[in-house]
Amino acid sequence: MARYPTAFAASAALLLSLALASPAIAAPKVHVVVMDKLKFGPVPAGLHVGDTIRWVNKDLFRHTATARDGSFNVDLQPGASGTTKLTKAGMIAFFCRYHPGMTGKLAVAK
Amino acid sequence: MIKAFAWAGAAALLAAGAVTSQAADINDAQIAHIAYTAGNIDIAAAKQALAKSKNPKVREFAQEMVRDHEAVNQKALALVKKLGVTPEDNATSKSLSDAAAAEHKKLAAMSGAAFDKAYAANEVAYHKTVNGALDSTLIPGAHNAELKSLLQTGRTLFGEHQMHAEHLASALK
Ligand SMILES: [Cu+2]
């Protein structure tokens, strides 16, 4: 009879500790980078391995977001968007394969 | 050298336009016609390359030229319609078209790697010529703000294409 409240209290305590711990784990985030007027928009700060970049092509032209190191590539028609995942830490340079003057860099932390 | 020469007549005419046109002798209807013609010339050259070349890099570049210039020209058509402007043929457009026709004929007689190299070299020279015209004459000469803004987009695009054409040309060496 007395066991149920105890078990309940224990699981509640567990849930609470998980809830408190989660900010420290830092759940993966989705960051947006816009492509428009033959340029990449500002790259967000605070990128971490496991995060996702959502590339949004608002331009009149088809573009790619291609990592120089080959770690990601997305090819987007005008008005389309697509996502790539950050798989490694470091400074990752990217460009558009069609418009070589379109470049940017992602600073990715562990 | 030969490639640059093909566009020399058109370039000279465009430069002459820059000297004499203090807003007066080139109007928006003519500027729209020149810009639209410049896009169409590059689309036609790209279609010739797609019909002749088997090189994947050349083909990808040509597909990009068709895609991007069609997008801009569609915008240009919508804009002139909205503004109620009828693009007006003029000496500069004619000079560009004549030079393009000569280049098209020359490339038609070539094939294989020789064609690919000549196409890439011509794309570099052509984009340079048009960029010069946009900077010296067309953008400063445009009166309508929307037309000016579209020409500026075209200028950024032609700059990117020139750079891409230079990469292509050096990859084919
Ligand atoms: Cu691009």
Automatic annotation (TrEMBL), chain A:
Coiled coil: none annotated. Keywords: Signal. Residues 12-108 form the EfeO-type cupredoxin-like domain. Residues 1-26 form the signal peptide. InterPro entries: Cupredoxin (IPR008972), EfeO_Cupredoxin (IPR028096), ET_Amicyanin (IPR052721). SUPFAM superfamilies: Cupredoxins. The keyword Cytoplasm does not apply. This is EfeO-type cupredoxin-like domain-containing protein. It comes from Sphingomonas horti.
TrEMBL record, chain B:
InterPro entries: DUF4142 (IPR025419), Ferritin-like (IPR012347). Keywords: Signal. It holds the Pfam family DUF4142. Residues 27-168 form the DUF4142 domain. It comes from the Bacteria. Residues 1-23 form the signal peptide. The keyword GTP-binding does not apply. Gene3D superfamilies: 1.20.1260.10. This is DUF4142 domain-containing protein. It comes from Sphingomonas horti.
